[in-house]
Amino acid sequence: MEIWIATPAHVVFGEDRTLGLTTVAEGLSVRLFGNTKPTPLCANPLKRWVPGEGDVTFICLQRTGQYPLFTNYLIGEPVVGDEIRLLGDASQPGRPATDQSGNVETYDRSNLAQAGWDIVSTPLGGKPTQSGALAYSPRGVLGLYTGRAASSKSLILSLESVQARASRTKGVNWALGDYESFDCGRSRSVCLASAEDFIPSDMQLANTVTDQRLTLVDGECKNVPEGKYALHPMTWPLSCDQATVRILSAKTKSPLTLLIRCTIDLSRKDWRSSVGNLACMPRGTDTFDCIGLQGLGRGWFNGVATVRGKRVKLTGGFRGNGSTSANAELNFTKSGVLEGTLTAAGMPAVPLRLVREQ
């Protein structure tokens, strides 16, 4: 087993980027917080410093025990104006604590092409030995402290950029998720809209932490407190592509519009009609295997249903005494009914009205 640590590249390589990985690794020793001895390195412990992708490299350690590592809900969103501090511990040599706080001044990932950082804050009082310290705000950990500018401003590499670099580095696994911090006293205007050619539906927003429930009506707006919400369509039986949404307040007064793509979920319950029931099981994205409609006297219909927004296309055939190809074009109505026409070889078109069982 192995674990990967992200650290500023200049801490490992210094200013000489021409040194080979083997040479650098021979002089490398890593001691995790709380341990008295260095942790053994992996056989190939280093990744190369890539100019233009941030002041960061990755070190591989052998997992020889249980470490108090962050594994989830860590990453905070850098927001201009937020208070920011550095993590430190005055009892540890080389890692002095600082009580000085600053504020995020800029967050611009385009800086990575010219520099090794993308967050600038007012001075945090960081020392030269603190490169790699975690910079945090009330929203979570923002990134790695990389040093000070000539203006004494603090320079930070965001965890978003570290993650992007890790995703492009072979063998480096990423196991950190977003830190979810919400202020329930703040809210934002949220509007609900349905994507073109998809089914409109009122949505219930269920807070994933509290018991709060809100209903958003299609085409209208409502003030929603900050939080993470699960989205449940109020029109049944629909399946919508956005299961959860994070609502955060914003300085702008413009509302947040949730553009929802809802389609029909044909599975879980049978669909009743005057010519027999139709039962469907998921096959793939917006496709279902269906069987039924035996009341037409042609045997059992067996085929595939393809859902496209409000429309359902049935393609298959009847299997009885011989085989007969058949297809249907159906529309989903506001009342939750599928209506259309079924055609099959050797028989007149049949009006089809399918109602989902309760």
Question: Would you mind describing this structure in some detail?
Answer:
This protein starts with a strand and ends with a strand. The protein is mainly β. It is elongated. The strands form 6 sheets. Strands 19-26-25-24-23-22-21-20 form an 8-stranded antiparallel sheet, with no helix packed on it. It has a 6-stranded antiparallel beta barrel with strand order 4-5-6-9-8-7. The chain folds into 3 domains: 1-181, Thrombin, subunit H (Beta Barrel), CATH 2.40.10.120; 187-264, Sandwich (Immunoglobulin-like); 271-356, no CATH class. The model has no long low-confidence stretch (mean pLDDT 83). The protein has helices at 9-13, 21-26, 159-167, and strands at 2-7, 41-46, 57-62, 83-86, 102-107, 119-121, 134-137, 140-148, 154-158, 187-194, 203-207, 213-216, 221-225, 227-233, 238-240, 244-247, 256-260, 262-264, 271-272, 278-284, 287-292, 300-308, 311-320, 322-332, 337-344, 347-356.
Q: Outline of this structure?
A:
With 358 residues, this protein is mainly β.
